[in-house]
Every structure is written in structure tokens, then in C-alpha cells.
Design a protein that fits this description.
With 304 residues, the protein is an alpha/beta fold. The chain is built from 9 helices and 12 strands. Helix content is 37%, strand content 22%. The relative contact order is 0.13. The N terminus is likely disordered.
């Protein structure tokens, strides 16, 4: 990483927020972006066919937000790609932040994030520290870790108090789509998000593609985003667990070379089996079965 101050002004920044029936969380998200103090900020909401009043509310209360209505649920990757295509068509030359609609961005965070990215010639993307909105002293994401042989993928620092975490900027294996900053020119070098990931895994896939293309992902703990996610574990539906399991197998098959598959077979049997047993012990038979069924369905190529 470069220790020299480039002295450059903040890059133009476009924030892309994909929304689907998220009217209840939009006031805090758009309100925080309006108050964040970032110069040259452009906010784009891609509405994936919401049935609530998300679009009408945004038009009334945040007319500065550009709205793209897709008319259907294109999910996270598809919705973001609609905005990314528009930005490419416009020859947008700044940074692009992919941001969840259930987030709050404290003042100064976006400036620290983009400046850190601009100051590092090796970094093509950057991530902030993400904490629970209901418990801001506790981290939800403090970097992404990927086992290059084991295939185990996890958030670093999850549920730990931020005062005990590393405050230094550093390279990480992947950035979460909750708040993922793409530097200028990354779209031209890496391309769009892979919409074949039906649900989950798109951000890890893109991160791996960034590193495979020669870039690095910089984690900036001094930049903070708050995420309205529960700190509890195991509350997801069987459907979501099934989708997560499928995406995980798809990711491994796409990026892990065949010479590592014998190790993967062992580690993933332990990983998936352990998750299934944990749900089973906690009385969630359907969820336990969904973990295994998702993996099997992906390997068999079953339609969604």
C-alpha cells in the first residue's frame, strides 16, 4: 500500500441501492446519504418491482435520488447490473458503491473509504467496517476470509466488539455486497455481476474475479456502515438456507481448480454436515435438510 498522500480531490461517487419492498428502511438509508457530506454524490435506486410505495415515497421525500424501475424482481445482481450498465453507457468515470437499502452511513465514512481507495494503487475495490445498527459497538463484517483450499468463507470479526479489532487498513479476500466500493475502471476490467447466482455468493464471486484480474480489495475500518441485521443466528427460512447452499457450491465449482477438489470434498462434507447437524440439534429439521438438498440440487443442475 502507498504511504504517500496523493493530494487528489474525492472522486465522483455513484451509490447504487437495489430495493424490493423496502419502504420501511429507505428513510434512514437515504437520509444518511443526504447528510453524509460527500461532494459530487449521486444516488441511484433500482426498484425491483416493489409492491409497496417505495418509489412514490422516494420521489416525494428524496427527489435527488435517481430511480430506475425494472418492473420485476431481478434480485441483487440483476438490479445492480441495470444501474451499472447505465453508468457504463454514460462513461461514468468515478467510483461506484453498491449499498444495501437497510444500511445507515455515518458522516465522513464515504470520504474516508474513497480516499483510502484512491491512495492505494493496487486496490481496485474497498469495503468499510460494517456494524450492527442495533449494536454499533459490535462488528458484522471486518473483512472477508476465504480458505483457498478448504473453501470456507466467512466474515472476519463478526459479533466482536470493535475496540478489540484491528484498526488498520488491509487487504482482504472478499468484500460484502452490503457495502462494496468499486474503483474507476473496474467494470471495464472485470465486467458485471454474475446473475447466475440466484441468491447469495455474487459478492464473493465478484471479489474473486477482481483478484484474478490483478486487483486487490482494501478493507478500511475507519469507514463505517451500520447494517440493520439481527445479531441472532439461525433465523433464516429453509428457502434461504437452500439458496445459500446452492450458491456456495456454485462458487466452489466456478473458482476452485480441480486439483483442490479432493480437499474440498472433505472440508465441505464437514462444513455442510456440521451446519445440518447444528440446525437438527436446534429442532429445525426442514432447515437441516435444506442445507444438504441445496448442495445436491446444485451439483445435479436442478432448475430453481
Amino acid at each position: 500500500m502507498s504511504d504517500q498522500d496523493t493530494g487528489t480531490s474525492p472522486c465522483e461517487l455513484a451509490v447504487v441501492v437495489v430495493n424490493w419492498n423496502g419502504r420501511s428502511v429507505l428513510p434512514d438509508c437515504f437520509g444518511s446519504l443526504s447528510d453524509c457530506g460527500y461532494p459530487s454524490l449521486r444516488v441511484i435506486m433500482v426498484d425491483n418491482g416493489s409492491q409497496d410505495d417505495s418509489v412514490a415515497w422516494t420521489c416525494m421525500h428524496h427527489p435527488e435520488v435517481e430511480i430506475i424501475e425494472t418492473g420485476e424482481n431481478l434480485r441483487w445482481a440483476g438490479g445492480n447490473n441495470v444501474a451499472l450498465r447505465r453508468l457504463r453507457e454514460e462513461d461514468f468515470a468515478g467510483c461506484i458503491l453498491l449499498l444495501n437499502n437497510d444500511t445507515i452511513v455515518p458522516g465522513g465514512s464515504l470520504l474516508r473509504l474513497t480516499e483510502a481507495l484512491q491512495d492505494d494503487e493496487r486496490a481496485w475495490a474497498a469495503t468499510p467496517r460494517i456494524c450492527y445498527a442495533g449494536d454499533p459497538a459490535r462488528a458484522w463484517y471486518d473483512g472477508g476470509l476465504i480458505g483457498s483450499w478448504s473453501g470456507w468463507i466467512r466474515h472476519d470479526g463478526i459479533r466482536r466488539l470493535t475496540g478489540r479489532l484491528n484498526p488498520s487498513a488491509r487487504y482482504v479476500d472478499y468484500g460484502t455486497g452490503c457495502a462494496f466500493l468499486l474503483g474507476p475502471g473496474v467494470l471495464d476490467r472485470v465486467g458485471e455481476l454474475d446473475e447466475q447466482f440466484y441468491f447469495y455468493g455474487e459478492d464473493v464471486d465478484y471479489s474473486l474475479r477482481v483478484t484474478e484480474a490483478g486487483g486487490r480489495i482494501l478493507h478500511v475500518p475507519s469507514a463505517l456502515v451500520l447494517h440493520k441485521v439481527s445479531a441472532s443466528v439461525g433465523s433464516q427460512s429453509s428457502r434461504k438456507i437452500w439458496l445459500r447452499s446452492r450458491s456456495h457450491i456454485r462458487l466452489l465449482r466456478k473458482h476452485w481448480p480441480r486439483r483442490r477438489w479432493p480437499v474440498l470434498l472433505l472440508t465441505q462434507t464437514v462444513y455442510l454436515g456440521g451446519h445440518a447437524c447444528w440446525h437438527l440439534v436446534n429442532g429445525r429439521l426442514a432447515t437441516a435438510l435444506a442445507v444438504l438438498q441445496g448442495a445436491l440440487d446444485e451439483m445435479r443442475g436442478r432448475q430453481y
